[in-house]
Write a structure and sequence with these properties.
Strand 7, helix 11 and strand 8 form a beta-alpha-beta unit. It contains 13 helices and eight strands. It has an eight-stranded mixed sheet, with helices on both faces. The chain is an alpha/beta fold. It has a single domain, classed as Alpha/Beta hydrolase fold, catalytic domain (Rossmann fold), CATH 3.40.50.1820. The chain is globular and about 50 Å long. 40% of the residues lie in helices and 17% in strands. Helix 4 crosses helix 5 and helix 6 runs antiparallel to helix 10.
């Protein structure tokens, strides 16, 4: 069975937030914990233009062999033409946690824009978030990100066929692209045009500024930066590391698309952290595991 098929067969449901149905997947069949293993349930929050299927088809079933895992599919608020905010998406994640895991504090894992959302949830709802993992996240959008975002919007608005190639060029790391062929990248290069909700998320990415929230995070936190990230350069992850009191940092040799380039390594890092979040003291820089 493929990982994608595993995701489709997981139990799931939905909650209604701001007039929209927010779907989630719940992989609740993890084996009983071993003695002394006090793993919190993991909740996954995808990035821009993503979903459980797109970003976590590999991660979810593998993580679920050791602990319960819930994944949120972020949804376009009603009315669809309104301005999307971090608060909209934050409420969706919090509502799923409260509905599916009532009374439990979770390990909240955010990827890309999902890291921004997860940070906001952790800052506002420490009762819901015991541990926090921020993968390729950021605090405040900088000029490099705004320039890339502007080009993306212009290519989308003109219907340019170059949008897929531009997205792949920015998402994957240079070392990865050096060892794949254009045929192997065909699913990305020929993907369906971005939806209106994708465009809303990209517009939100231009306005991100959670600098007032991040210092309020109390959760035991792991920051995961990506060495070759051109969308959210690793300096942003290092800024998160410096701003969160109980944080430790590690880095993966990957571009922004770490969930595709290095999924097994990311699974290992998240799983080991969730097993013993305080294994490394706050302020630690955790060496990158080498093959």
């Amino acid at each position: 069975m493929s990982t994608a098929e595993s995701v489709r067969q997981d139990a799931g449901g939905s909650v209604t937030v701001d007039g929209v149905e927010v779907r989630y997947f719940d992989h609740a069949t993890a084996p009983a914990a071993t003695a002394g293993d006090d793993r919190a349930p993991i909740v996954l929050v995808h990035g821009t233009g993503g979903s459980t299927q797109k970003h976590f088809a590999y991660l979810l079933p593998l993580l679920a062999t050791r602990q319960r895992v819930v994944s949120v599919d972020l949804a376009q608020p009603v009315p669809a033409e309104g301005t999307l905010t971090v608060e909209h998406l934050e409420r969706q994640v919090a509502a799923v946690v409260e509905a599916v895991l009532p009374g439990q504090a979770v390990t909240l894992v955010g990827y890309s824009l999902g890291s921004v959302v997860a940070s906001a949830v952790a800052a506002h709802r420490p009762d819901l978030v015991r541990n926090l993992v921020l993968v390729a996240g950021w605090i405040t959008t900088d000029t490099q990100q705004k320039l890339r975002n502007r080009v993306w919007h212009e290519l989308r608005e003109t219907g340019s066929s170059a949008l897929g190639a531009y997205t792949a060029f920015c998402a994957f790391g240079g070392p990865y692209l050096a060892h794949v062929t254009l045929d192997q990248l065909a699913p990305v290069l020929t993907a369906a045009p971005p939806s209106d909700f994708d465009a809303q998320q990209m517009a939100l990415n231009q306005r991100v500024n959670i600098s007032a929230l991040v210092p309020r995070i109390e959760a035991t936190t792991l920051i995961v930066g990506c060495t070759h990230d051109q969308m959210v350069p690793a300096r942003h992850s290092k800024a998160l590391f410096g701003a969160i009191q109980d944080a430790r940092y590690t880095e993966i040799e990957s571009g922004h698309a770490v969930v595709f380039e290095r999924p097994a390594q990311l699974v290992q890092i998240i799983d080991q952290f969730n097993e013993a979040p305080a294994r490394h003291a706050a302020g630690s820089i955790i060496p990158t595991a080498r093959p």
